[in-house]
Design brief:
This protein has 187 residues and is an alpha+beta fold. It is 41% helix and 23% strand.
């Protein structure tokens, strides 16, 4: 009976020691780790940084930016890292939508500002074919402005910030505070 009681008291301690804490924060940044002398790129999120390692979670263990309970932590030594790239999650979609709206707005303003056209007919059947009011020009300008605005937004949103480490511990120590901003814990 004493043995059973002892085992029941020891059970919570054993569970607490074996369980990994699941990060509860939602990933704000997407990370790409480029390894030295390798074409393989690791995609996911950086959980935290140590003095000589980076703790990384692969994107296959993320669902809607949150870490799933069965995640596997990768410990990557600094000597293996060539560079790390970052981009805010969903920045591509947000900037594309913002660029599209801005392009449509600019096109509409330019079209409306050009005013109404007047017809100077010389008697030909096609003389007044391309005469538009300011409102019609605003609509056309909005439609025409969508594509350039969307393209500019897409290009701006797809940019990534890069930190070059090249396996150098000294460079890592200098950039570690900046690197912490892009981790899952965000320290």
């Amino acid at each position: 009976m004493k043995t059973l009681l002892f085992l029941l008291l020891l059970l919570p301690v054993t569970i607490a020691v074996n369980a990994q804490a699941i990060p509860s924060a939602k990933a704000t940044y997407a990370n790409w780790l480029y390894l030295n002398n390798s074409n393989h790129v690791l995609k996911g999120v950086i959980l935290a940084t140590d003095d000589s390692t980076v703790l990384f979670i692969d994107r296959s263990f993320l669902v809607a930016g949150k870490v799933i309970p069965s995640y596997q932590l990768q410990v990557i030594p600094i000597a293996m890292i060539e560079k790390i790239k970052f981009r805010k999650r969903n920045s591509l979609a947000k900037s594309t939508l913002l660029g599209t709206a801005a392009g449509a707005a600019v096109g509409a303003i330019v079209g409306y500002a050009s005013g109404d056209d007047e017809c100077y007919s010389t008697g030909g059947w096609f003389d007044c074919m391309f005469v538009y009011s300011a409102e019609e020009k605003a609509g056309l300008g909005a439609v025409i402005g969508i594509l350039p605005g969307m393209t500019i937004g897409l290009l701006l949103g797809s940019s990534r910030k890069t930190i070059h480490i090249n396996g150098d511990q000294g460079v890592y120590v200098l950039t570690r505070d900046e690197l912490r901003k892009y981790t899952l814990s965000g320290e």
